[in-house]
Design a protein that fits this description.
Blueprint (H helix, E strand, L loop, with lengths): L2 H4 L3 H8 L3 E11 L4 E12 L5 E3 L1 H5 L8 H28 L8 E6 L1 H10 L6 H9 L6 E5 L12 H10 L2 E7 L6 H7 L3 E4 L1 H7 L3 H17 L2 E4 L5 H9 L2 E4 L15 H38 L2 E6 L2 E6 L9 E7 L9 E6 L2 E5 L11 H12 L6 E2 L3 E2 L6 E8 L5 E7 L5
Helix pairs in contact: 4-6, 9-10
């Protein structure tokens, strides 16, 4: 949308639209588990009198100029709703009337939370527009995904629950759009409990070079799994982004990497073959990473065993000594001993070198039972008491800000030896 059109009122927009056609374009959404098209997202387009196609995303998302009078603002808002309904109606009719389409194929329809709020405020006895058109076109509501679009919303998201619940009772699925950008915060997940969470592409792109964003995506994956939601990664443009999406639990995929939006529904035939090949490449890539990590972990455990770590207790004081410090000086950041309840008994030992170790007894007496790695080693050791080394998940150390993996091992006295290893020792 040009800057000139940004200031148009509803009458000017209506005049421009009258010289062309408002149509839905469809972008396929792929199912990872089935190597097939799960559904299509309907996207609003305008074809002008010269045949140029314009996205209407800016039209819907643009704020109404403050210079408009109250009546002009209301007219523009109603006009947006009119265009939105035109696109939804045409999209539902297209899906309903396309021969040979899998009867389970979903249609994703973007709906503004502001439009939903207006419907609830009207206190009308009429069914929601989308439900009305689904019935009149013979389209099973179970095939429709209501996608709550990302936009600034002045109301409370809880206010939408009656309408969302009505959609769900009618068979619709519900998706939260663009998690991670602007207004689409976690409160929408908690309040509306969507069936599908769409993850914003910006998070994926950042995850390629940022460990922080990788952790965020991992957490989103765990969150979706625990809530029974499916993750849809949208906006994929490269193979790297695809691999990131698959790594972090994507069930559905969408983006230019597979197909651009088009006026006709895309056939899956050629796409599914290509996607199956990508699946195989992804699995082989991840298998290589895992096998490499297993090898590195085994090498590190062998060095820990060969380093001659000695834990001594004399007059209630616990100390650590190394016979072969050279084996650990490039890997180990710190070592210490706690009792089985997490209370630190020994000093911290760091700066390992041929000349010895740095000893810091200021940590003696601190309790680490609240740290995830402590409970993790307790759980794993309770399951397998063979006495081997137990490795934690990677984490950032609060004080050093280093990325670490903590190895732990139970001692005969019931104490626990912890060895913090720098993450660069792993792939």
């Amino acid at each position: 949308m040009s800057e000139g059109r940004a200031s148009w009122n509803a009458s000017k927009w209506r005049e421009w639209f009258s010289e062309g056609e408002i149509v839905p374009y469809f972008q396929p959404i792929l199912s990872v588990e089935k190597d097939s098209i799960f559904g299509y997202e309907a996207l609003a387009r305008f074809i002008d009198k010269e045949g140029v196609v314009h996205s209407l995303g800016p039209f819907f998302l643009a704020d109404i100029p403050h210079s408009f009078s109250v009546s002009e603002r209301e007219e523009f808002k109603n006009f947006k709703l009119e265009i939105d309904r035109t696109v939804r109606k045409k999209a539902m009719e297209k899906i309903s009337n396309t021969p040979g389409l899998d009867p389970k194929t979903k249609l994703f329809l973007n709906i503004s939370p502001s439009f939903m709020q207006d419907y609830l405020s009207s206190k009308t006895d009429e069914e929601p527009f989308t439900l009305q058109i689904a019935k009149s076109s013979g389209l099973d509501p179970k095939r429709i995904v209501i996608e709550i679009v990302e936009e600034h919303f002045s109301g409370e998201i809880e206010q939408l629950k009656p309408l969302i619940n009505l959609y769900k009772r009618s068979g619709f699925l519900v998706a939260i759009d663009d998690l991670g950008s602007k207004s689409s915060n976690l409160d929408r997940i908690g309040a509306l409990h969507p069936d599908i969470i769409k993850v914003d592409l910006g998070l994926i792109r950042s995850s390629v070079s940022s460990r922080n964003f990788q952790e965020i995506l991992f957490t989103l994956s765990r969150l979706a799994e625990s809530l029974g939601c499916s993750l849809l990664f949208e906006g994929l443009e490269t193979e790297t982004e695809l691999y990131n999406a698959l790594t972090y639990g994507a069930r559905f995929l969408q983006g230019f990497y597979f197909a651009e939006p088009a006026p006709e529904l895309m056939d899956i035939n050629g796409l599914s073959i290509r996607f199956s090949q990508l699946h195989e490449l992804f699995f082989n890539y991840k298998k290589y990473q895992l096998l490499r990590r297993i090898k590195k972990e085994k090498e590190l455990e062998d060095r820990l065993e060969s380093s001659g770590i000695e834990v001594n207790t004399s007059n209630g004081i616990v100390t650590i000594k190394l016979r072969n410090s050279y084996l650990l000086e490039k890997s180990v950041f710190r070592m210490y001993v706690t009792n089985h309840e997490g209370r630190q008994l020994s000093p911290n030992y760091s700066g390992i070198s041929d000349s010895g170790m740095l000893e810091d007894d200021s940590f003696v007496g601190r309790n680490w039972s609240w740290r995830p790695y402590f409970l993790e080693q307790f759980y794993k050791n309770a399951k397998d008491s063979s006495g081997g080394w137990i490795a934690s998940n990677p984490y950032y150390d609060l004080e050093s800000n280093l990325l670490l993996v903590t190895y732990s091992k139970s001692m005969e006295e019931g104490n626990v030896l912890f060895v913090d290893v720098r993450m660069w020792d792993f792939p």
